[in-house]
Automatic annotation (TrEMBL):
Pfam families (UniProt xref): Dus
Known catalytic reactions: 5,6-dihydrouridine(16) in tRNA + NADP(+) = uridine(16) in tRNA + NADPH + H(+); 5,6-dihydrouridine(17) in tRNA + NAD(+) = uridine(17) in tRNA + NADH + H(+); a 5,6-dihydrouridine in mRNA + NAD(+) = a uridine in mRNA + NADH + H(+); 5,6-dihydrouridine(17) in tRNA + NADP(+) = uridine(17) in tRNA + NADPH + H(+)
This enzyme's EC code(s): 1.3.1.88
Family stated for the protein in its record: Belongs to the Dus family. Dus1 subfamily.
Protein name: tRNA-dihydrouridine(16/17) synthase [NAD(P)(+)]
Keywords: Flavoprotein, FMN, mRNA processing, NAD, NADP, Oxidoreductase, tRNA processing
Amino acid sequence: MSRPNIPALDSFPETGTPEHAKLGGYDFYRSIGSPQRIVAPMVDQSELAWRVLSRRYGSDLVYTPMINAKVYVQKNKGSSRVREGYFNKAFAEEGAQELVLGTKKDTDRPLIVQFCANNPDMLLEAAQSVQDKCDAVDLNLGCPQQIAKRGNFGAFLMDDWHLIFTLINTLHRKLSVPVTVKFRVFDSLEKTLAYAKMIERAGAQLVTVHGRTRDMKGHNTHVANWEAIRAVKEALRIPVFANGNILYPQDWRDALAFTKCDGVMSAEGNLYNPTLFHTEIVQDLASLAHRGEEKPGFDALHIVHVANEYLDIVANLKTPTAGSALKGHMFKITRPALAIHADLRSVLGKAHSNEIAHGEDRVQEYRAFVVELTRRLEEDKLKAESYIAPADASRYYMKPLHVLDPHDTSKRPAFIPHWYLQPYFRPPLNPPKVTDIGLEDSEMRTHHGRTLKAQGNDEFAKANYAKAISFFLDAIAQLPPRPETNLEEKELGADDTADEHSTATHTPPEVMETILTEAVSLDGHLITSEIVELRVKLFANLAASHLKLEHYEETIKAATEAKERLGGWNHLSSALEDYKRLEKLDKEGRVPKASRAELYAALRRVPPLLENVSEKEKKEMMGNLKTLGNSFLGYFGLSTDNFQMQEQEGGGYSLNFVR
């Protein structure tokens, strides 16, 4: 085996002396309370409200979501709104030493703000703007997503050690707070250790080691390498945090024991169970499945308890919580229950938050969802079958990732009743993944959705329509969340769609590429036509399955979703024709009464969309033509004035040549 190409440590400059007096290494670590339980930086998920909740349940240190330094320092129209969306200073709550939320006193410290960057000057400018609101600034060297590759940041800087050194060293010398770094390992342990030592020499005062390589993402995600993390810990003189494989409460204890690190970071594990780090909650998780047995500490693990507490925090903060973050958290917290009560997914999906409102008005629709979920879960607790692992448990559960004592299953049970918080395991074809930003990337979720769709198709072919519905619903839930405001309608020009992201705190379109992750939300993330098309097919399959079972109301709902989500003149025109046929059937008394409201709502909704999209397509066609005309029509003595657009009787437009 050839020796990896490793730059010599002496080829890098000396660390240098900071311009500002500040603590470093273990002095800094002790000054923030010697944290052992750390919540990772997670795009659109480690926002202020979630940080508060995580601290209430044992987290010692929390990071902000990743901020793109280049976008953060841009000075153009709307740039102040961009910065406030990333890190809100207006309400003085982010990074505050004390927060009074109702009757509770909370804090947003200690706090580390994370940036991604490839330009030292931009990184420094961005970091200096928040250094008085945090305890340290972190450089992201771990993001493996395609957006990081296109932007040349995160894990895609791993090949440019001298640039990395400059980025870290600039912050070390110029900031008034320490600089920390989060990075991934190489395939070669020798190169990983040399890389870590270079980062330390550059001035990092604390590092987090994600025990996966840059290529270990999506379908290629594997178990994080705790051995490599332990080797880094032994090689450095500064505090080291371990990241990877933290799904059960026992995992972070085992990680500390195995790696000898100073702390353990959790991303996705925290999202599904924010009580993961709480030391006072029951450790014998297997006992959760014992009917009639409610031990002290069980309450904190109840889904509805944590969901309501999170909503309380959102309602009491002055700083608005982005609707995409709120919805993402609610889906993850309640995931086990929604696997049983699948119909409530649409209820949660349609819930909106009101960012410009205050108090309970912000979360009113989400609270109504929790009330109904609570009622159902209380009924479930009385059923003996709720305490028995389902036959298809393998779809949701698998063996622990890393168990020091494989004989002790009480702390990592294969089954936990669905009203309790618990880790989420994907089917075997898609191994569990903890990404650098805590969420699956869009590609992985889309691939997983296709897998479930294929399974649903198989069940449909076998005439197992109820099972097919279950798979199709799971597939829809697995796809990157679509915007609450219906992006398709927004693009078509609909102005009557409730837009919860229209406030000053919303992340604007120019940030879309920078912060792409699992949550795909309006103006916050990219939604591709591929995902839209897959979602349309799933709703169409769902409608076909309901039709086979003579579920006419559900058939209409699913068909409505399939028709309207794809957008475009042809699809909307076809949808309108279908609705008119249904209207004719209704006049003949052949449409279920319960479905009439949905039918006539669609009949009111589609014509304006059709008008808007036809106008949009007309403008796009003329715009494209004019662009081409500037380049070659002039060669023939023609201009775009020689072409006129004429509306057709059946809809659509044609181009006519005139002299």
